[in-house]
Amino acid sequence: MNFRNIFLLLKREVRDQFRDRRTLFMIFVLPLLLYPVLGIFVSQAGQYSNHKPSFVTVFVPSDFDHAVQEHQIFPLFALNEKDTLTSHFSEALFSGKEKQRLLVLTFETIASEDFEQAATNQAKQAIDAKKGDVALIIPPSFLEKLRKTYDEIRPRRRRPPPSPTSSPDSPEGTPPAQISEDSRPLDIPRPNVIYSTATQKSLIARNRLDRVLDAWNHQLGAENIKKGGLLPEVASPIEVQTSDIAAKTSFHGASVWAKSLPIFLLIWALTGAFYPAIDLCAGEKERGTLETLLSSPADRTEIVVAKLLTVMTFSVLTSFLNILGIAITGYFLISRISGIGIPSMWTPLWLFLALIPAAALFSALCIALAAYARSSKEGQYYLTPLMLIVLPLVLFPTSVEQELTLGSAFIPVSGIVQVLGALLEGDYYQGFKYLPVVTLVTVVCCVVAIRWSVDQFNSESVLFRESERFRLRPWIIRLLTTRLPKPTPQAAILCGMLILVARYFLSFLPVDLGSSKSLILQILMSQLLIILLPVLLLTAISSSSVWKTLRLSLPRQLWTIPVAFFLALCWHPINLWVGSWVVSVYPVSGEMTELLQELQYNISLGSPWVVFLLLAVLPGFCEEITFRGYILTGLDTPGHRFRAVMISAIFFGATHAILQQSILAAFTGILLGWLAIQTGSIWPTIVFHITHNGINVLIPNAEKMLDSPESFIYGPWGIIVSLFVFMIFVVILRKQGNSEARIGINQ
């Protein structure tokens, strides 16, 4: 790799981008102008929304106005000088007159005998017709019941000591007369609130009304306590005092910045990388300058690295300037709220350190997608699926229940958000503890993305794809008439996606774990209809050679089949050991553990041969024909075998319902994919699969032997011996595969 060529290309690309006035405006000018304007708009809109009143329709009986004057204890509704109802609640329930005016009342009188039903129907009609935001139904005799409850309260008397005349059934010798007097149930009055979750205005009105009713209920409780001869403080004997230990530090209110800044940082890093990548790749195709660049002395890798550094530069600039604009504008808005302070002085450093690897990852992905696009217009279409993938990864750590753990640190992009959030909050121990894991995952993802970009630029069929219009009828005719000896990578990916979609909807079907017929039907549907049927249909439609498509030919060396059997025996203890580590990183929930134990118990009640056929033989054939047959064969192109093995393993793992099982299945899928490529057949992988699953059926509690001193095979020394023998078999199979490859080249 010639770094001088990379530097020259970098200067060229950066200079071309800076010559575009639109690029300069979007990167340097817009962020500094946009966010203050948005801040003004948000502030004014907030003032408008906070002062917009909500309309409450109050349904009352015909004599309610007179009853208020007669039975009112603590006022709920405001009365005028003539002691008649007004259009507001009592001022005593609010902290100021402005808040009192936010709820405007309209009284509707109902004289029907069935008051509750009539009021409910009219309330629903009023809300549906937008005549009111929320409805409050005051049932007949509501105030009378409230007054009766208030009058029945007596000053509390001291209990007399137990006497011989007390009833033996009375607790602690309490006289029966006092029990009957103090424990009588009260006829509690209950108003009814009707609202609609279909409109935001109704939800806002309901929240405001709830606060008023809670304040009124609290005041009534205080009045009742006074009536009972107690001080009002008895209702709330504890006064909680709070103290923010971060108030005098640089981390005052840091959680707000830790939640928001990482999201904006990564979203703008992706957005800032995508559009320059489109212009540098798809744009050069349209301008006709890509051929000149490819004919230069620089090789394809140097061109990709130069474009990557250029896109990274603009990604970092875009993200940094937007974060700066958001931080300045947001500080002046949020700093008015109590508990929010200026970010820590180390915040720019943490943001910059997180931005570099994120920008590198997004830039490599954007260059690969932009290189595949025929035009700038087509390249812009690829932003949506990329954004749909990145957004959940960015927003997932913001959930309240999500904490930074070793398991979450292994998730790409999400790990960056969580580590950055920990550093912004000042939790340096947690941040630096998982920083190496996040760095390793991000570097691996960057390397894979860069390798993908280089492959895109090394493929002439990708760089110089001609534009074509899609026509349904010619496409169907070509699909039915054109037959290839093996599926294309696109067909393999389509098959895997169809299986995952079908598997997702199958998971919603009810399963009776106590019924053996239901379990058998679920297994048969999963294996035959969801996994095997799509492959058979696609093979019948487009394949000219079923044997090559599904790798059904016997391996050239038949001894690889028994080797696969012993390889599975050695792999099982290793897989259990890896599984224990996976469970420690991603613990199984208690509910899932109980479900698995119940499922395992019900399976153990069945015939061992039936269980072996359903859980070992059937998956061994169906899953190997699908994942190591059709999908792996379609993805297996020269120079991309590792990628084919990884993608097929990911599809294989994703078809399993439980997360921990999916991770283990993906690891096993890598081994099975490698075995299929080395032997050129799926028969060794079928033997491996049946053997591995068969051991799980025969020894269902093998994972409990990992820590047992009496178990040698699943103990530490047994795992070491299994690993040693396993590596010997791997070396033998690798040499056999290399010798077959050399024979094929010579022929």
Description:
- Strand 2 (77-79) and strand 3 (85-89) form a beta hairpin.
- Strands 4-1-5-6 form a 4-stranded mixed sheet. Strands 2-3 form a two-stranded antiparallel ribbon.
- The protein has 3 domains: 3-44 and 255-463, no CATH class; 53-154 and 184-233, abc type-2 transporter like fold (3-Layer(aba) Sandwich), CATH 3.40.1710; 488-746, no CATH class.
- The two termini are 34 Å apart.
- With 747 residues, the protein is mainly alpha-helical.
- Helix content is 67%, strand content 4%.
- The relative contact order is 0.06.
Element layout with pairings:
Elements: H1 3-18, H2 21-50, E1 54-61, H3 64-71, E2 77-79, E3 85-89, H4 97-100, E4 103-110, H5 115-128, E5 134-137, H6 142-152, H7 176-182, E6 192-194, H8 200-227, H9 254-280, H10 282-287, H11 290-294, H12 300-334, H13 347-372, H14 376-381, H15 383-395, H16 406-409, H17 414-424, H18 428-458, H19 460-463, H20 472-481, H21 489-506, H22 516-542, H23 546-550, H24 560-585, H25 590-604, H26 608-635, H27 641-654, H28 659-679, H29 683-698, H30 716-746
Parallel strand pairs: 1-4, 1-5
Antiparallel strand pairs: 2-3, 5-6
Category from helices, strands and their pairing: mainly alpha
Quaternary state of this entry equals: single chain
What is the number of helices? 30
Largest sheet: 4 strands, mixed
Unreliable spans are 155-160, 164-183, 741-747
Number of strands: 6
- Total domain count: 3
Classify the helix fraction into a percent range.
55-70%
How far the N terminus sits from the C terminus, by CA atoms, comes to 34 Å
* Average pLDDT for all residues: 79
Beta percentage is under 5%
* Spatial shape: globular
Q: How is the largest sheet built, in terms of strand order?
A: 4-1-5-6
Task: Tell me the radius of gyration.
Answer: 36 Å
